[in-house]
Amino acid sequence: MIRPPTPADLPAIRRLWQENRHSFLNCGPEDLPHLLGKPGAAVGVLPGEDAGAWGFVAFDAPALNAVLGSLSDGALRAALIGRHLPSGASAERLIGHTIAGLQATGHPFQLTALSGESWLERLLIGQGFAVADHLCFYLRTRRNLPEFIQHPHLHPQMRPLRQDELSALIALDRLTFPPLWQMGASELLELIFSSRIQAAEVDGRLVGYMALSLHTASDQYDENQAQLIRLAVDPRLQGRGIGRQLLTESIAYAHAHDCYRILLNTPESNPAHQLYESINFRRHGARMPVFIYQFPGQMVAPLNGKP
Fold first, then answer.
1. pTM given for the model
2. Same domain, yes or no, for 36 and 158?
3. Across 67-71, 159-163, 271-275, 296-300, which has the greatest mean pLDDT?
4. Residues 151 and 240 in one domain
């Protein structure tokens, strides 16, 4: 039987978390209770009282973002398939049940999944997901700073983003990125509080930003590293050195905190690859497909956004 999970299923899902045939996890065990009882989740229950669970799938429940007026993604957080499935059970039916439950609400929605695992890719494609883009991963380990030449007619002010600039941040993010890669208001608010954001200002207007997070090594065998989370520049001012200046400043900040291993990821559709490679970022690892499912079915917007 497949049904929406309830808090009573939590022990069985935790056992499945520990013992399974296939697992995809984009969350921690502490997040499990928050995924239960929502339309974006389904659990496959073994026959018999207290017999346990044979499968579990959970997406973030998609919701309309009132500020942006567009759908935020219901991202895949967990997919767990047990070692033994009862007769007639299938992992495809788990995802299908989740989609049917969301369709029954009558509201349009979009689901996304990032996965390089072949077993999960087959399930997603079988349930109508399509590859919309790929994520590419970059690494920089050079200890020198990139060369930067100031644009002769544009001199943006670089400063920390203020917490009261959320509305301006939302507007810039919407202007810069296609719908697939836009962040909702809650995501951008979390970004403000969880990372260092350097802003670029021209004539009193926010025209760009760079979000950076630092991660200190946990032991002597590890090394500090930095993650360049998000770079955005007003499309009307792109190509004038603002993005390069934001990147250079963020790399310098990371180096000042003894972080020389700097990571970033960006959509393959992003034309900024040349910029990253020009300052000694190099491809790191395999690219990862980005799957989407939209209801009602429609074509995604052209992908020409920045990371």
1. 0.81
2. no
3. 159-163
4. yes
